[in-house]
């Protein structure tokens, strides 16, 4: 699943299409895609894992789910796009294996921008306040809660918890105040590092525990389990990541 930093990179890659008019719309989506014809793109925005195309009277939301992808000015010859947007001079943006839907209200009303860890409007104090309001929540679930940390996905979750030495089955309410602040701060810090590494095509080289077998601190086997209500893969060290419960 693309995480928030990857969506920010997509937003940057399609900047040349701002101001362009959509001349062709195809794909196997069930939405009323004809609405997009002859629409002028006013801006591209991102909120967490949502890629947003702002048009004069409405917006289009693209969510890449678990296996979504995109191609700019090329296609996948072996796959039918969920949505393909064509422009003059044969240029196009193709979206695959994703969810698309219209947003009728203004985006500033539809989204809480403060919750996006990559946004200039990110508010760590509000994140802390909302975290403290759900003390029984496991930290592995809290980090994946898009109302708290929009854009954080499984990779960021695993790496952040390892960095701050917190076991994924710890509860929010059991974390000392300092650790809770570290959780919030590191979620944003790592997201921006992820963004830089992704642009340089070196992201995987920087993973410490995600998909790894050995703890780089303790040199013992890492644990792998599907934890929390999300049942997503967690990679963690039983020795150096403390269980707060």
Automatic annotation (TrEMBL):
GO terms (molecular function) for this protein are: endonuclease activity
What's the protein name?
Endonuclease
Family, per the entry?
Belongs to the FPG family.
InterPro entries in the record, alphabetically?
A: FPG_cat, FPG_N, H2TH_FPG, Ribosomal_uS13-like_H2TH, Znf_DNA_glyclase/AP_lyase
Matches recorded under SUPFAM superfamilies: N-terminal domain of MutM-like DNA repair proteins, S13-like H2TH domain
Gene3D superfamilies the UniProt entry points to: 1.10.8.50, MutM-like, N-terminal
Q: Which reaction does it catalyse?
A: Hydrolysis of DNA containing ring-opened 7-methylguanine residues, releasing 2,6-diamino-4-hydroxy-5-(N-methyl)formamidopyrimidine
Record's keyword terms, sorted:
DNA damage, DNA repair, DNA-binding, Endonuclease, Glycosidase, Hydrolase, Lyase, Metal-binding, Multifunctional enzyme, Nuclease, Zinc, Zinc-finger
Q: Where is the Formamidopyrimidine-DNA glycosylase catalytic domain positioned along the sequence?
A: 2-94
- Cross-referenced Pfam families: Fapy_DNA_glyco, H2TH
- This protein's record includes keyword Nuclease: yes
Describe the location of the FPG-type domain by residue ranges: 208-242
């Amino acid at each position: 699943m693309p995480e928030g930093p990857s969506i920010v990179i997509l937003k940057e890659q399609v900047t040349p299409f701002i101001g362009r008019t959509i001349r062709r719309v195809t794909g196997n989506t069930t939405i009323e895609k004809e609405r997009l014809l002859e629409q002028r793109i006013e801006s591209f925005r991102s909120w967490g894992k949502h890629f947003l195309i702002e048009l004069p009277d409405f917006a289009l939301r693209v969510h890449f789910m678990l296996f979504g992808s995109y191609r700019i000015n090329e296609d996948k010859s072996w796959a039918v796009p969920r949505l393909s947007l064509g422009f003059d001079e044969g240029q196009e943006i193709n979206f695959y294996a994703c969810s698309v839907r219209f947003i009728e209200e203004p985006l500033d009303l539809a989204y809480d921008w403060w919750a996006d860890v990559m946004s200039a409007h990110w508010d760590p104090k509000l994140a802390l306040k909302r975290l403290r309001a759900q003390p029984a929540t496991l930290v592995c679930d809290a980090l994946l809660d898009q109302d708290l940390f929009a854009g954080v996905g499984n990779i960021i979750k695993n790496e952040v918890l390892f960095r701050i030495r917190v076991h994924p089955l710890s509860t929010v309410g059991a974390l000392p105040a300092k650790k809770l602040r570290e959780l919030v701060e590191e979620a944003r810090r790592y997201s921006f590092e992820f963004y830089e590494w992704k642009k340089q095509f070196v992201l995987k080289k920087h993973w410490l525990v995600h998909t790894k077998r050995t703890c780089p601190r303790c040199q013992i086997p890492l644990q792998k389990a599907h934890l929390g209500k999300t049942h997503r893969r967690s990679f963690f060290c039983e020795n150096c990541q403390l269980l707060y419960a």
